[in-house]
Description:
Layout: H1 2-9, H2 23-26, H3 33-47, E1 51-63, E2 69-81, E3 85-92, E4 96-101, E5 105-110, E6 115-120, H4 128-139, H5 146-149, H6 155-161, E7 162-173, E8 176-185, E9 188-195, E10 202-209, E11 217-226, E12 246-247
Parallel strand pairs: 6-12
Antiparallel strand pairs: 1-2, 1-11, 2-3, 3-4, 4-5, 5-6, 7-8, 8-9, 9-10, 10-11
Amino acid sequence: MGLIKKMAGLMGVSLMGMLYFTPSLAETPLIEVKAENTLQEMLNYLKDQSSLKFQADVAQDLVFSNGQKIQVGAIVNLKVRRTDKLNIDYQGDRNHVRFYFDGKTFTMEGLTNNVYANFLEPSEVDNINALVRRIGERLNITLPLGEIIATDNDLESIKNRITSGVYVGESRVNGVISHHLAFTQDNLDWQIWIEKGEKTLPRKLVITYKQDPSSPQYSAILSNWNFDPISEEDPIFSFQPADDADKIDFLIIQP
């Protein structure tokens, strides 16, 4: 049980950038119109896709007891068929984990230690949106890029959480011209870079966790977007354990 909990904790999911801001922008209490419109265009574009594949190059700060920060990285490949199927492969510096959801059962597989655990609540979880919420509540697991693959993370729910939002300007992410937006919430700040043009794709995400005195960051550069249809019968969504894999239990958080 502790192993799955430990692996989940590792998922969690620039100074030069601060030069963009003036004090008046930093103190703006509401989301700027251009920032709001750009974010809405991205959400609409993603919501219209019935299938999606993409890759994320992730970096995350780990904070030691002496306050020292160490950055670890991972390559994450995500395959989603809405509304109820996903496969996520997280290959990190410290572990290799896969997540499966076939519409009924959520499975987390630890390839580094050859273990797996299943979570089945058919009356509660029958789509990706419910899955993202439920495993957060019951398992304390955050899916990598969960708010990107869910479709219920709409503009109004985001606006209810943020205290300010600004349009920073245009910049390039891996050569792609992108709109740079920055938002604040009570416990974190986050920035997102959204491709300029017809394909309003998220290209980069940076989160700063302000509740920790060390202000660790999580960043993800998103690439290799593909929206070709994925069959609901595709075997990538169904988990089949290896013959020598050990089944363990999730640590369930009681309501």
